[in-house]
Amino acid sequence: MCLKDSSAHRFMLINSNQPQGRQHFTIAHELYHLYIEDKPTPHKCNPGYGSKNLTEQCADMFASSLLMPEAGICQLIPETELKTKNISIATVLKLEHYFSVSRQALLYRLLNIGLIAESTRSKLAEAGVKYSARCFGYDTALYEPANEGLVIGDFGEKARHLFEQEKISESHYIELLHKININGTEENEDSTRR
What stretch or stretches form a coiled coil here (predicted)? Predict the structure, then answer.
């Protein structure tokens, strides 16, 4: 989720329950809404591939291009695999970790730039992500939830500002505070310590 007000204040909220690679894609997707989309409206996004409106498709393509530039991908794929369009699981793992993205995001990017066929994408998607990473000696942190409670910037301050300007309701404000592990309904502790 992201918000931008008329004075160009921006903030985004990323679900830390999602795997780290998915979070990276979501951040890039939301950057499209915050910096490229003409008039973004607050909404809940589900970045990734599938049928959705044109704006969401553009945000997904932006995220893919930003995180996984075609030239960079091609440089990392062995020439024999590039020529045959038969990308191995070892190469997929190398690319996932190099670009720090999910398997799903990488496979759709390879499909969209014509480096694999749909049948290859489906086959590679069926391989157990964590299992294959361990088999090839990769760390599995990319596939695990991460960054719980991490707040970068002035999220709480901006949420309060939106609430005070009556752009969001009190319940929405409290919900946003809960997302950064702050209980917005507690009484002022200073006034109770007398």
Answer: none
Residues 68 and 24 in one domain: yes
* Cα→Cα distances 72→2, 22, 39, 64, Å: 28, 20, 32, 12
pTM for the whole structure: 0.78
* Overall residue count recorded for the chain in this entry: 194
Q: Is 172 left (phi over 0), alpha (psi -120 to 50) or beta?
A: alpha
Distance CA 31, CA 12 (A): 9
- CB atoms near residue 169 (< 10 Å): 11
Which pLDDT tens digit goes with each residue over 72-107? 999 999 999 999 999 999 999 999 999 999 999 999
The 8-class DSSP code of residue 115 comes to: S
* Domain span at 158: 151-185
Strand 2-4 to 10-12 pairing: antiparallel
Predicted local confidence at residue 194, as pLDDT? 45
Q: How many domains does the chain have?
A: 2
112 lies in the same domain as 28: yes
**Residues 57, 115: Cα–Cα separation, whole Å:** 20
